[in-house]
Amino acid sequence: MSELPEYVLDRTFDASRDLVWRAWTDPDILHQWYGPGVETIIHQYDLKPGGAWLNEMKMRGMSDYSRMDFQEVAEAEKLVWHHASTDADWNVVANPMMPDWPRVLLTTVTFSDAGGKTDVRLSQVPIDASEKEIAVFAEMMSNMDGGWGKGYAIIDELLSQLQS
Prior knowledge:
Elements: E1 7-13, H1 17-25, H2 27-33, E2 39-45, E3 52-59, E4 62-74, E5 78-86, E6 104-114, E7 117-127, H3 131-163
Antiparallel strand pairs: 1-7, 2-3, 3-4, 4-5, 5-6, 6-7
């Protein structure tokens, strides 16, 4: 496969770029919207290149673990991380709910001013993935809007609270 599928979600938030950045980078806020409808526990959040975000989402009596290794952090402008499913010891493993899901996604989030509001672009691309993993990612991309959309709706509420 020559061209990797890329999931892209563009969204404008009705808040300043600094406040939207805070929603993405303050663990006390992030855990409230990341993984909507489940209990999200952030075990570690070291926001710097080479730092890690260790995340657990509890649902239906089980836990889903993921590790995000920060590649780039440009304050209020850009976050880049490698996003991987892990076991409880934070070792990268196949996703237990979708074994053919790519083990690692390159995630890029950019923030830009939009006349008192903030444009956010989220992009995810499989890296070091097999043909089957790439195919599964491409097939499932259309379903990803739902989860991110629910999280973004919570961000809207949180931003409103933070501004008042």
